Amino acid sequence: MRYKSLLVALPFIFGVASANAEGVVHHKLNGMPISESVEVTGGNLVFLSGKVPTKKSADAPEGVLASYGNTEEQTINVLEQIKTNLNKLDLGMDDIVKMQVFLVGGEETDGTMDFKGFMQGYSKFFDAEKTNKLPARSAFQVAKLANPAWRVEIEVIAVRPTK
């Protein structure tokens, strides 16, 4: 029994895992601003539908890349929407435990997703240097989204701690 307690404590001793809300443990992936896994033992899961970018201005033309910005700008726009949605639910970005990212490669990138641009936007919200409360994350290149100018769609799962 004594060894089992030591095995449970080792990740915390070496800084590999960090507790967020009660019942949530983030197991950081070294060298990346994401968690390798997020363990939820208490709390309620909150699933947010995929968010897509909004136009930079209401009168900007529909379906034109310049109306939505590049991948980095679209990522920031989408994560701001997610942050606003979570705040309305009395949650924050550090309550996100899982993120799925869908990226489209457009003509401007010869059909290849702009992962670097995504990471530049993502890192403004999730900085591995500043926190261990990082979501587990997957990123996929998809053929297209509903609007030909969208390059980013993100859906998340957050956890609301039980009280």
Q: Return Rg in Å.
A: 18 Å
Structural class: alpha+beta
Distance between the termini: 30 Å
Query: What portion of the residues fall into strands of 2 or more residues?
Result: 25-35%
Organism: Proteus appendicitidis
Keywords: Signal
Signal peptide: 1-21
InterPro entries: RidA_CS, RutC-like_sf, YjgF/YER057c/UK114
What this model shows, in words?
This protein has 163 residues and is α+β, with helices and mostly antiparallel strands. It is built from four helices and seven strands. The protein has helices at residues 2-13, 65-68, 71-88, 115-122, and strands spanning 17-19, 24-28, 35-40, 44-51, 96-104, 136-142, 152-160. It has a four-stranded mixed beta sheet with strand order 4-7-5-6. It is globular. It starts with a helix and ends with a strand. Mean pLDDT is 86; it is low at 1-20.
List the helices and strands and how they pair.
Layout: H1 2-13, E1 17-19, E2 24-28, E3 35-40, E4 44-51, H2 65-68, H3 71-88, E5 96-104, H4 115-122, E6 136-142, E7 152-160
Parallel strand pairs: 5-6
Antiparallel strand pairs: 1-2, 2-3, 4-7, 5-7
Helix pairs in contact: 3-4
